[in-house]
């Protein structure tokens, strides 16, 4: 601090007050102190000082894709419940799958001195975690893997779940199972595609590019894809690779008055109430959120890191009827 | 400036704002920028730069009932979008309708120095706002009114929407319309009941206690209430006073293989996909969230308070088929 004071040309007391986060400092002097700290290579100390000793934020940051998607709001709720038990608040922010936005949110949350971060990495990769300046609190990657060494990671068995769904559709007699999903730049989507292809291979089949869509980002886009597959007659069953795709398929069935056998990835609230009820690969989303919070809180309490840094949770195939052939689509009759 | 942005790990825009002396820059980022400027020997304009010591949190607090309820996660998302445009993060917490929990969350968020609060008051009233210690930042009550003088309040026209739904069911020939809802200690529920009773009165009818339920807190509880109404034959139509009650009614119809004319309050994603499609009173939930964020941000930017402190947004009756008699319930046939 003496060096900083000399370099900045201010009193030692002023540096001390700056480092302690006091408010009544001339901004010009503060700027000179910041510059001096930089000049002297004290960046790490500055960041450490900004953590305000004696005061901790008791806040965990959560970065997801879109809080309005029930998949993510369920996760956020599960994290909130456990965090609250330990006196932590949750600051939640949506990346919209954009790398730049994700990076800016990481900076903002670190600037906010969150004590832990739970992150769903975005589809569009941003900067490497090794480029994040300053000390990084415990990080847990959720749903998709990230590139920070030593971070905990919680994934669902996406490949296994997709494989089970595809095997079931094949067992029902399908031979042209369509894959209706999002971009395989999303790791979960790539894994689901792998499970789908594995199941086909076990039956001596190969994925047909005409049956594979990566353009179903929304319910309406998925509906258009499924409508086209039905119109062309190319597919005899649909694996919908996320809940938006499932809703889109149901919409397409409803509008055409016909339907194909369907299994979707991710359960959703109305699945059992649709006609026919929609069969799904179910992730234990609440458990994933709870576990992520537990890992962050463990690290904050100084518990030794668990040896299993990567946890892959099993999925469950729930058959409700939509996987079978020959049921009428629900129509407003 | 590009070099500084890269060195500091912040957006170019942030460096530009820092160098231009803007006040609303996170001090931690400002510190990092100062350090980068020092490291790089970039001193131009430094004297003019405003590196504010002390802190502004650039965070808005949001208290809702339950983040896992799509009604609230849609609101949270809308608030987040506008807050983000202005550089604010959102810390969201669930009260679970409990007064004590709500009060503790207010204290925690104020301790966190949120710059504004958006609050859905809980069913169980907690302490009066006049008892909240310390300075209170701008507060907006959302969905339900609160007791803080001078706060902005944004409500939906709950009575008007419920009245319109009930009038429609009566126009379809019903004479024994059931009200399936939650406790009238929740102001929105009391307002919806008022609209329901008003519509009955206009037709020379009075609410029949045997047809009015305040116990439908969850989908399953609502399903049990509707199943009993169908078994007793007491009701010839159902007004479901929230989205959980609507799903419960659909579940009861499905399990019994019969159904009654139904209109629900609040739209939900699968409503149009059910059989028959569920008619609803729709609130513009996204607009409510956006407006709440706008009011908080207005106050923070020093804009004079608008004269209309209470805004009541209109609802919309969306008829999709379930309000009519004689459609079969969706079954897995």
TrEMBL record, chains A, B:
UniProt xrefs under CDD domains: HTH_LacI (cd01392), PBP1_LacI_sugar_binding-like (cd06267)
GO MF, one annotated term: DNA-binding transcription factor activity
Pfam families given in the database record: LacI (PF00356), Peripla_BP_3 (PF13377)
Family annotation (InterPro entries): HTH_LacI, LacI/GalR-like_sensor, Lambda_DNA-bd_dom_sf, Peripla_BP_I
PROSITE patterns from the UniProt entry: HTH_LACI_2
Keyword Transcription: yes
Keywords: DNA-binding, Transcription, Transcription regulation
Stretches assigned to the HTH lacI-type domain: 1-53
PANTHER family with a match to the protein in the record: HTH-TYPE TRANSCRIPTIONAL REGULATOR GALS, LACI-RELATED TRANSCRIPTIONAL REPRESSOR
Identification of the protein by name: LacI family DNA-binding transcriptional regulator
Record organism: Nakamurella flavida
Lineage: Bacteria, Bacillati, Actinomycetota, Actinomycetes, Nakamurellales
């Amino acid at each position: 601090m003496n060096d900083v004071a000399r370099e900045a040309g201010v009193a030692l007391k002023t540096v001390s007050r700056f480092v302690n986060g006091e408010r009544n400092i001339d901004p010009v002097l503060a700027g000179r102190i910041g510059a001096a700290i930089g000049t002297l290579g004290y960046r790490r100390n500055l960041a450490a000082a900004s953590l305000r000793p004696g005061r901790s934020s008791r806040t965990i940051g959560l970065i997801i894709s879109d809080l309005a998607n029930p998949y993510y709001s369920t996760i956020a709720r599960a994290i909130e419940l456990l965090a609250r038990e330990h006196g932590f608040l949750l600051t939640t922010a949506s990346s919209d799958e954009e790398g730049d936005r994700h990076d800016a949110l990481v900076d903002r949350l670190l600037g906010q001195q969150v004590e832990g971060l739970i992150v769903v990495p975005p589809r569009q990769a941003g900067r490497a975690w090794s480029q994040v300046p300053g000390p990084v609190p415990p990080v847990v990657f959720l749903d998709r893997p990230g590139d920070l060494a030593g971070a905990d990671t919680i994934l669902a068995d996406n490949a296994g779940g997709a494989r089970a769904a595809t095997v079931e559709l094949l067992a029902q007699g399908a031979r042209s199972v369509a894959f209706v999903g999002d971009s395989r730049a999303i790791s979960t989507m790539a894994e689901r595609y792998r499970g789908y292809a594995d199941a086909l291979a076990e039956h001596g089949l190969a994925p047909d590019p005409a049956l594979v869509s990566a353009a179903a980002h929304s319910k309406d886009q998925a509906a258009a894809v499924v409508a086209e597959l039905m119109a062309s007659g190319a597919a005899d069953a649909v694996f919908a690779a996320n809940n938006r795709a499932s809703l889109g398929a149901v919409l397409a069935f409803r509008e055409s008055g016909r339907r194909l056998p369907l299994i979707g990835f991710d359960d959703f609230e109305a699945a059992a109430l649709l006609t026919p009820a929609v069969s799904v690969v179910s992730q234990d989303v609440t458990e994933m959120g709870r576990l992520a919070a537990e890992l962050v809180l463990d690290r904050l309490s100084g518990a030794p890191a668990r040896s299993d840094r990567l946890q892959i949770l099993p999925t469950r195939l729930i058959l409700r009827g939509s996987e079978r052939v020959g049921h009428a689509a629900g129509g407003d009759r």
